[in-house]
Amino acid sequence: MTTSGLHSLPDETLEQAIQWSIRMTYNRPDPDTCKAFEMWLSSDESHQLAWTRLQGLSSRFDDVPAAMGRQALEKLPQARLRRRQMLNLLALCGISATAVWTARDAAPWQRLLADYSTRVGEHRRWTLSDGSVLELNTDTAVRLHFSADARVIELLRGELYLTSGADSASARHRPLRVINPFGSFEALGTRFGVRQYPHSCKLEVNEGAVQLLSLGGKGAIAQAGETWAMLHNGVQRLAARAQEPAWRDGLLIARSMPLGTLVGELGRYRNGYLGCDPRITQRIISGNFNLDDMDATLAFIAQTHDLRLQTLTRYWMRFSV
Fold this sequence. Notes:
With 321 residues, this protein is α+β, with helices and mostly antiparallel strands. 30% of the residues lie in helices and 33% in strands. The protein has 3 domains: 3-112, no CATH class; 115-238, Sandwich (Jelly Rolls), CATH 2.60.120.1440; 250-320, Phage tail protein beta-alpha-beta fold (3-Layer(bab) Sandwich), CATH 3.55.50.30. Strands 1, 2, 3, 4, 5, 6, 7, 8, 9, 10, 11 and 12 form a 12-stranded mixed sheet that branches. Strands 14-17-16 form a 3-stranded mixed sheet, with helices on both faces. It starts with a helix and ends with a strand.
């Protein structure tokens, strides 16, 4: 969505939605707050519309470079959001008003800049002009920088899977690279997945090879079956063997996974808060879980593992004993 969708809503409704989103997303709301939110949400259809649109814009943002923030803000005037609303939106995304309005930097709106993106809980596939197949997992955004000399896919956030194309229409060889805040991955006739974390990027190679080059100048060549981590200062091979990503088939596969880790992974596919009682975070869970029907999946986990699923609202759920 774009901010033009927000502009069509009444100012008061938008202001309330922003405030509720801050309270529900970045705090641990108590039961009274959750009940008040549910009452506000159900009291008017415009409240539900504002909430849905806002979550699509603002959920799970990370810090981004200043240049990206400036590019995003340059696209905003047509939305004509009032200054106070814009400041609150930026606060919702974890960005200080001073930083944004004095330097117009660090506005983490990757979807406004993306050529391809997915919403929370969505996974999609595209065939690019060079024949490569690009697949995006939940809450992911990428930009394409294709020129006569190179094919570059910029991972702004999230997780992708790439099957490199032959680029047969090009008169010259154009290297295919995935760039991220930590460096680049160059495809050497391959299929591979890349997932971006706050402080690293993980590479899993399923076919062919991938050349890694970190911003620190250190590199390596990853072969099929290998998993690597890229950090600011270098690259590191991991012990885990590369797996075909199950999310491409709408699944999350857990093998002897602590409940706390599983909840964290499932939380990537739904808006709002999903947590668990600290006393049961180390309980071991195994299974194949459906990502396309999260409510059914959470209910199934609770039922099969003798857990209680506390549901204060559809945006606040917690496993307990």
